[in-house]
Every structure is written in C-alpha cells, then in structure tokens.
C-alpha cells in the first residue's frame, strides 16, 4: 500500500467519494460536490471560449486587425443578450433563427445521404453486398436476412395501419429482430456501466490508496 | 417470508456490496486474461497501420469525462500506435468539456516515448510529429471546414501557436492529406463525421465508441461508412493487444487489466437476473 | 414582426444550408465558408454567454430569495468565479499573466479540470453500474417470448464479447459477431431509417415555419 501524497489526488478522491455517497442516499456532501462540479466546469468553459474563440476569431481580428466584416456576427451575437432585457427580448430569436436555420438546412441532405441512401444501399440485394460478408454463399443468406429484417422492423414501427394480415405477420417477424437488437444493446450497456465503475475504482485503489499499481 | 419472495426482494444494498466486492477483488489480485481481437478492431488497426508516409491521421478525442474509463484507453492505444509507427497525427476535440482529456492522453503518451528516446530524431517533437489542434465550435465547423483548409479553421492550436507555421501543416492542408480520421466518442459524433466530412469530402472514418453505442454503430460499420470499430473497454483492450503484439509497444494496458473485473461483474449481474427470474417462476407457479 | 422576421430568417438560413450542400461551386463556397467560420462560430460563442448568464441569474436569484438549498449556490458561484479567474488570467496552458504555481503546487485550469471535473463527472457515471445491476435484477423478467429472446441475446453478447467467451468456445465470439452484424444490424437499420425520415421531416417543418416551438412563448 502506497498512499498518495499529492494534495490534488486527495481532493479528487474525496470529491469522488462525496458523489458515490449518493448510493446511500442524497446528502449534503453529494450536493456540495455537484455544485462545485457545475462551477468549475463552467469556469473551464469560459476560459476556452475567451482564449480560443472570442479573442482569436472575433475581438483580435475586429479591433486589432480591422476586419470590419466581423462587425456583423458581433452585432447579431450581441442580440443573444437581449434575452435579459424584457422589452426587446424577442430579438434573441434572430441569432437563434440564423443559427438553427443554417444547421437544419445542412442537416437535411447530410441525413438523407448518410442515413437513408447509404443504409438502403447496404440493405438491397446486390452482388457487392453479398461479397462484403466474406462468407461465400452464406453471404447471400445474411444479406437476405438483413433485407427481410429491415423491412419487417420498419413494418413493426408502422402504426398507420392495424397490424393484421401481411403487416401482422411482418411485424411479428420484425419484433424478433428488434428484441435481438435490444438484447445486444443491453448486453453492451452492462459492459459500459461496469467499465465506468472499474475506471473509478482503478483511480481510488491505484492513484489514491496505492493498493493496485 | 417464502423462498420465492426472498429471491425476488434482495435488498439493493446487498446487490451494491456484492457488485463492489466482485469488481474490486480482481483489481487487487490481478490475473492476465488473453484478449483475442475481433474483426472490426483489426480493421481499424490495419487502416491506421497502413497510413502512407505522405498522409497524416486525425484523432478526434470527443469523449467526456463521464466515459473516460471506457474511451481514454482507446486514445492512448491509438496514440501509441501512431507514434511508434511514426505516423503524422493531428489531435482535436469537438467539445470544450473534452479538450482536457485529449491534453491528458497526449501528455501521457508523449512522455512515455520521450522518456526512452535517445536522440532528437527518436523524440516526439511538437509540430514535426504531432499537432494538437485543440477545439473549435460548433462541431460542424471543423467537420466541413477542414475539407477546405485545416489552418483556416484552427487558426491557432491548443497552445496558441499559429497552425500554418507548424512543420506538419506545411504538407497537411485539408482532408486530401488525411488517410483516416479516428473518432473516439460516446455520442453520435462519428455518424456526424460520416454525414458531413465523408459524404462531402470522402474522408475515411474509423470509430472507437462506448459500449452503449456499440450495437447502434454496427449498421454503419456494415455499410463500410465506418472503416473499423472498437467498442467499449473490451474494444480498447483488443487494440492494446494489437499494438503490443504487432509493434512491441510496452506500457500500462488499463483496459486489459480490467478484463477480469469486467468478466466477474458480468457473471454476477447475470446471476442476479437468473435469481430474480427463479423467484418469479416459483411465484407464478404458486399462483 | 416579432415572429415574422425570425420565421423569414430561419427559412432563408435553412435554404442557404441546403444549397451549400448541393452547390459546390467555389464562388458560393467563399460565401458559405464565411457563414460557417465567421458568423455561426461567433454566434455559438455568444450562445454560451447567454447560457452562462442564465445559470448565474438562477443561482443569484436562489440566494437572494433564500430558496431551498440556497447555500450550495454560493459554492457554485465561488467555484465558477475562482476557476474562471484562473483560466482567464492564468491562460489555457498556464501561459497567462496570473502565476498558477506556488512552489511545486500547480492550480492552472488543466489541473483543476483533471482533479475536479474529471473525478466528479466520472463518479456520477460510476454510480450507474450499481443502479443498472439493481434495476436488471428487479425488472428483467422473462414474462413473454419477446422478453426471452431479448434476455437470451443479451446473455450471449455479454459472455461472447468477453475473453471468457473465447475460453468457452472459439466459435462463441464469432457467433456474437454474427448477431451484431446480421439480426442486430437489421433491427438498428430499421430504426435508423425511421429516425432519419423523422429528422428530415422535422427539419423541413422548422425551416418552413410549421414547427414554431423554438420561438418560445410570448408575442
């Protein structure tokens, strides 16, 4: 056992224990740690926005190098602050509209291409898809399974018609695929959560208490 | 209290305590478990390994402190791999709350290599061998903008240097000079890299993700949109294994060390689920 | 005017976003780059100012009105003020005007991040392992065929992805890969397609001014 003498390791460990104390019940130590987290995390955020965005991208070029075009983003950006002035608070909608509008516009073709066209291309029954499995003739079987699975899953989530007849059958097949998919996701989720606990214990038992190397 | 009631109502504190003991003991008394890399991780490793000399790779460390345990070992393994094979590497983060973790990973691995380097040539030199671009918001700005000019987006690097004055950046101008981008993340950031940078500029994207996202991401891996995929701590352990086995890089393998704990914890959770269901069946039979 | 101007702006900005993707002509790209790299990047920074302003206002208000647990708001404000001063004047890489080392003790912004933000955030998520174990034990009941299927797939994946799976049978990890690559992909892809169509529809509704929730309340 080789306990750390670094004051920061002690601070980090005590704060960690304060959070973990929530397992027993909500308590003042947990609440204090939670508020400290919010405070420091936001202080960190301010640091980087000032030093790496506002200064090099806006203030220095605008006020030191005279890039007057930047006056436009500066003024529109300042409109965000009208949120705190009730009489003209509606002006906050202007920067939000520009920001949200542009990204929403960019999102449409990007989503269609990455999540619809490419996914459909990966599903349809073509020779390259059969070969992509590197499984010989079984590649055809796996491609057909994925093809049927996708259609049946879609039919399961199609609620505009009652699940009777053909849709009834396909949606019942669909639920089989969905349950296997959710099962796999759950299996992985267990791994994810345990990993985070292991990471914490590696720190407390290793860096702090020196029980493990 | 009847047996089935007991089986169905184990106190949560008992579950917590057992889980804690089961996870802790293998950490205190470690034993080596052989990790066998799976195909998606091998593909990622090969893609990084095959980066030609005239191209660089980008490592996107967009993982939050919350998921550090899962993803940081991936970052360290990829950095060790890149540095050992002398690939030029640009590191960045897409969110401000993650940039400190990228700093940590870079500092750790650079220190590992430079502490054993004997000559200037052997050493990892900032600007010559790697660049830490830092962070520029919002994520879509670097994703799209780096396709035209990396230096225009990252005017200054993390340390405040003008990026266009750095040695690497004389040859690495935009995505044309990038062999692959490895996105390490616990969110849908890798899909955004595909949607914006890959669709428009043809950038190859390899992924390291948390296990929570693993099952969702297989659909992008199957279409080839993701060149390779490492999932969760096990994926990190597989990459660590590949780096050590193929390039002889020795160093602490945090993810591999956790495998025994991870195994026991899985078994105990499965046992709890089975116990709960036995109680449930007995209860139903009684009814 | 209070609603019409934002609705016109969101339509125009949305259209410009779509066009940027379909017109890769250099003359348009110059404009598009300015829009992204200058205008929107600066707007994102100001959005953070707004968010921080709101956070501080809530906590000052809580202290002023002595609402429940108001004492903790002081902690937040002190932690925020302290770290912001260290970061703003001490610099990103301890290169500012404020010295951030006293003898061998450093307190630069990266040190604060590594020893306060990381441990606190990682501890919060470490808690989830306990809750997940307890919830799985209590709620995971094999009540139907579907639940049995889910549980079976989960158990196979749990064992198969671990080194233990390879020890049991070298075919088990391969079988897990098959589950992930075939039935899992089919299900996830169905869901992805559904979500993608929903995203496109919602985006169109926002740009066309049909979806107006973002305007908030009031006039």
Automatic annotation (TrEMBL), chain A:
Superkingdom of this protein's organism: Bacteria
Transmembrane segments: 7-24, 36-54, 66-85, 91-112, 133-159, 171-191
Protein name per the record: Uncharacterized protein
UniProt keywords, alphabetically: Membrane, Transmembrane, Transmembrane helix
UniProtKB/TrEMBL annotation, chain B:
Membrane-spanning segments: 14-33, 262-282
Superkingdom, taxonomy of origin: Bacteria
Transmembrane helix keyword on record: yes
Keywords: Membrane, Transmembrane, Transmembrane helix
Protein name (record): Uncharacterized protein
TrEMBL record, chain C:
Stretches that traverse the bilayer: 7-27, 39-60, 72-96, 116-137, 149-166, 186-208
Source species, domain of life: Bacteria
UniProt KW keywords: Membrane, Transmembrane, Transmembrane helix
Protein name: Uncharacterized protein
Origin species: candidate division WOR_3 bacterium SM23_42
């Amino acid at each position: 056992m080789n306990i750390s003498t670094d004051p920061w390791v002690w601070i980090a460990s005590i704060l960690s224990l304060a959070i973990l104390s929530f397992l027993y019940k909500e308590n003042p130590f947990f609440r204090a740690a939670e508020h400290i987290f919010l405070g420091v995390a936001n202080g960190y955020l301010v640091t980087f926005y000032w030093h790496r965005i506002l200064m090099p991208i806006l203030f220095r070029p605008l006020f030191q190098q005279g890039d007057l075009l930047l006056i436009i983003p500066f003024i529109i950006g300042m409109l965000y602050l009208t949120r705190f002035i009730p009489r003209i608070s509606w002006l906050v909608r202007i920067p939000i509209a520009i920001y949200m509008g542009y990204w929403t516009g960019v999102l449409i073709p990007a989503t269609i291409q990455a999540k619809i066209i490419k996914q459909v291309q990966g599903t349809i029954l073509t020779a390259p898809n059969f070969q992509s499995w590197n499984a010989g003739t079984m590649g055809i079987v796996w491609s057909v399974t994925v093809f049927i699975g996708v259609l049946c899953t879609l039919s399961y989530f199609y609620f505009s018609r009652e699940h009777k007849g053909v849709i009834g059958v396909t949606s019942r097949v669909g639920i089989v695929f969905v349950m296997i998919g959710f099962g796999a996701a759950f299996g992985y989720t267990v791994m994810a959560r345990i990993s985070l606990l292991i990471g914490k214990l590696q720190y407390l038992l290793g860096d702090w208490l020196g029980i493990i190397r | 209290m009847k047996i089935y009631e007991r089986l169905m109502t184990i106190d949560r504190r008992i579950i917590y305590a057992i889980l804690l003991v089961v996870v802790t003991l293998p950490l205190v008394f470690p034993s080596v478990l052989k990790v066998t890399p799976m195909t998606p991780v091998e593909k990622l490793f090969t893609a990084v390994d095959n980066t030609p000399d005239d191209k660089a790779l980008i490592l996107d460390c967009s993982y939050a402190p919350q998921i550090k345990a899962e993803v940081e070992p991936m970052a360290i393994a990829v950095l060790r791999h890149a540095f050992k094979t002398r690939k030029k590497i640009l590191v960045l983060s897409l969110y401000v709350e993650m940039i400190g973790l990228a700093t940590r990973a870079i500092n750790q691995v650079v220190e590992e290599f430079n502490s054993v380097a004997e000559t200037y040539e052997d050493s990892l030199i900032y600007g010559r061998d790697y660049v830490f671009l830092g962070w520029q918001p919002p994520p879509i700005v670097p994703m799209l903008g780096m396709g035209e000019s990396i230096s225009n987006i990252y005017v200054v690097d993390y340390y405040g240097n003008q990026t266009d004055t750095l040695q690497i950046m004389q040859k690495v101008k935009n995505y044309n000079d990038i062999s692959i981008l490895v996105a390490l993340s616990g969110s849908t950031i890798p899909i955004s890299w595909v949607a914006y940078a890959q669709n428009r500029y043809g950038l190859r994207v390899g992924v390291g993700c948390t296990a929570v996202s693993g099952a969702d991401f297989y659909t992008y891996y199957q279409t080839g949109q993701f060149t390779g995929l490492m999932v969760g701590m096990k994926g990190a352990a597989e990459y660590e294994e590949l780096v050590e086995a193929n390039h002889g890089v020795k160093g602490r393998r945090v993810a591999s060390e956790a495998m025994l704990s991870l195994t026991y914890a899985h078994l105990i959770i499965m046992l709890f689920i089975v116990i709960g269901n036995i109680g449930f069946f007995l209860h139903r039979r009684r009814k | 005017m209070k609603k019409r101007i934002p609705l016109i702006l969101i339509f125009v900005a949305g259209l410009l976003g779509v066009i940027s993707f379909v017109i890769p002509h250099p003359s348009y790209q110059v404009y598009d780059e300015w829009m992204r790299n200058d205008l929107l990047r600066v707007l994102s920074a100001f959005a953070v100012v707004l968010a921080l302003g709101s956070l501080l206002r809530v906590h000052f208000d809580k202290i002023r009105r002595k609402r429940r647990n108001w004492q903790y708001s002081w902690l937040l404000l002190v932690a925020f003020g302290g770290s912001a001063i260290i970061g703003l004047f001490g610099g990103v890489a301890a290169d500012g005007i404020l010295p951030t080392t006293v003898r061998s003790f450093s307190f630069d912004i990266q040190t604060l991040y590594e020893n306060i933000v990381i441990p606190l955030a990682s501890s919060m998520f470490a808690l989830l392992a306990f809750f997940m174990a307890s919830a799985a034990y209590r709620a995971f009941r094999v009540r139907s065929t579907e639940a049995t299927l889910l549980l079976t797939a989960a158990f196979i994946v749990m064992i198969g992805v671990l080194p233990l799976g390879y020890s049991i049978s070298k075919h088990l990890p391969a079988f897990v890969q098959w589950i992930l690559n075939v039935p899992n992909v089919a299900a996830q892809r169905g869901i992805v397609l559904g979500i993608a169509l929903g995203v496109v529809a919602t985006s169109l509704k926002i740009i066309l001014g049909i979806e107006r929730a973002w305007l908030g309340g009031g006039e």
